[in-house]
Design a protein that fits this description.
Blueprint: E1 5-7, H1 17-27, E2 31-34, H2 42-55, E3 58-63, H3 66-71, H4 73-83, E4 87-90, H5 102-121, E5 125-128, H6 144-151, E6 157-159, E7 178-181, E8 199-200
Length: 212
C-alpha cells in the first residue's frame, strides 16, 4: 500500500501541532513533512522529536530554506539524523530573487546542486520543491524547470505541479525527472482551498495533500 505523508506547512496556521499530529495518525497517515519553523533551533528539534514519537508518525522528508542549506549544512545534517529525515527539499525562492533568463535558471540549478552536495555526501537525499512559475517561459524562451535540470544534474525534484498546464510547458513531460509529486487545483481563493488528489512519480511513495 502507498504510504501517505502530510505536508505540515499546510496546517501552520492551525496550532497546536500536537493536535494536528494526533489527527493525522487517526486518519491513517504514516508520516509528515516538516518545515523550517519547526526545527529552527535545538529546542524546536527536541520538541518535534517528542511530538512525533508520541503520535507514532515519522518525518521522512523536510523543507529547509536555501540560506540555511548554504550556511549551516552541518546543522541540517544533524537535525535530519536526529529526526529520522531521509530527504531534504529546498522549498522556494522569493519572486524578487528568481532569475529572469534561461542562463539564470541554469545557474540556479548549479547553486541548488552545490547546496545539496554536503547532504548527499552525508547519505541524505536532496531536491528542489518546484512551483508553477517554473513552467512559464522566460523572455528569452527558456522553460525554467528544464533550465534548472540543465544546470543542476540530478537535483531530485520534489514536484508540486498543479492540475492544468498553466505555463504551457507541459509539466507531465518532465514527470520522469520528478520523484514525488502532489497535484492541486489552481487557486480560486486561498482561504478555503480544498484538498484534492495527489499522485506519486518514480519510486518514492510519498504524497501531500491538504489546505494551504
Amino acid at each position: 500500500m502507498t504510504a501517505f505523508s502530510y505536508q505540515l506547512y499546510s496546517s501552520r496556521n492551525f496550532p497546536p501541532l500536537a493536535d494536528t499530529l494526533r489527527l493525522l495518525a487517526r486518519l491513517g497517515y504514516g508520516g509528515v513533512e516538516g518545515y523550517g519553523a519547526l526545527y529552527a533551533d535545538a529546542a524546536g528539534v527536541a520538541k518535534l522529536k517528542t511530538q512525533l514519537a508520541a503520535s507514532g508518525l515519522t518525518m521522512p522528508t523536510a523543507h529547509v530554506g536555501l540560506d540555511v542549506l548554504e550556511t549551516e549544512p552541518d546543522r541540517v545534517i544533524a537535525m535530519a539524523r536526529d529526526l529520522g529525515i531521509a530527504t531534504v527539499y529546498c522549498p522556494h525562492i522569493a519572486a524578487e530573487q528568481r532569475p529572469t533568463t534561461g542562463r539564470g535558471y541554469e545557474d540556479f540549478g548549479r547553486r541548488l546542486a552545490a547546496a545539496g552536495k554536503p547532504l548527499r555526501d552525508a547519505g541524505l537525499g536532496f531536491g528542489w520543491h518546484n512551483h508553477d512559475f517554473e513552467f512559464k517561459k522566460t523572455a528569452d524562451g527558456a522553460l525554467p524547470q528544464a533550465a534548472i535540470f540543465e544546470g543542476g544534474p540530478r537535483p531530485g525534484m520534489g514536484g508540486r505541479h498543479r492540475l492544468g498546464d498553466q505555463g504551457r510547458g507541459r509539466p507531465a513531460a518532465l514527470d520522469r525527472r520528478v520523484r514525488p509529486a502532489h497535484h492541486r487545483r489552481p487557486r480560486q481563493g486561498q482561504a478555503n482551498q480544498q484538498p484534492l488528489i495527489a499522485r506519486c512519480c518514480g519510486n518514492t511513495p510519498r504524497l501531500w495533500c491538504g489546505r494551504r
